[in-house]
């Protein structure tokens, strides 16, 4: 009974993966017509600011992809290299845990700290010091990489994108990571336009 249930879950996961690839392929092939449709919808919905907001939405999604997912993969790769170099047990499992923590915007040091403790009790002093410095620098590297990669080329402040991404991920997972940033950024755009119009009327 358990084997059949496991097979059903595995088949469902494979099916969802194949469907996701098909949908992604359709979007890639028909990217230009879809982009025109999206811009038209934005223009019909938001008037003269529609095309501007459509472009801003695309830039925000790209920014979140590079600034959150990209930095998470870079950070995980650096930490993973340290674990495999020093032959940490279950390095593959820790790599997955660190990747999830980084995507969820949680400190990677939460997973690195036990590893540093393990190296303290099992490795020699030189290996321990090298691994500790390597792990701490890699764990804190997102503080440098995110400001460099996130929010480039868009007029929305980076804290707005980060707060939207965190709130969206808490509410809807990976999809919310992008959706939350877009929704909060659009509200920020509406607010700035409204404040600008009010200032013009007061003058």
Task: Give me a quick take on this structure.
This protein is mainly alpha-helical. The chain has helices at residues 2-29, 31-46, 50-85, 91-103, 109-122, 125-140, 142-149, 158-202. Helix 2 (31-46) packs across helix 3 (50-85), helix 3 (50-85) runs antiparallel to helix 7 and helix 3 packs antiparallel against helix 8.
Radius of gyration: 22 Å
What is the number of domains? 1
Measured between the Cα atoms of the first and last residue, the distance is 74 Å
The overall strand count is 0
Largest sheet entry: none
Kindly estimate the percentage of residues that lie in beta strands according to DSSP. Answer: under 5%
Estimate the mean pLDDT confidence: 76
Helix percent reads: over 70%
Structural class: mainly alpha
The gross shape turns out to be globular
Task: Give me the number of helical elements.
Answer: 8
Unreliable residue stretches: none
Order of helices and strands: HHHHHHHH
Report on the structure:
Belongs to the autoinducer-2 exporter (AI-2E) (TC 2.A.86) family. This is AI-2E family transporter. The chain crosses the membrane at residues 12-30, 60-86, 93-121, 127-145, 166-195. InterPro entries: AI-2E-like (IPR002549). The chain has helices spanning 2-29, 31-46, 50-85, 91-103, 109-122, 125-140, 142-149, 158-202. It is globular, with a radius of gyration of 22 Å. The model has no long low-confidence stretch (mean pLDDT 76). The protein is mainly α and 203 residues long. The protein has eight helices and no strands.
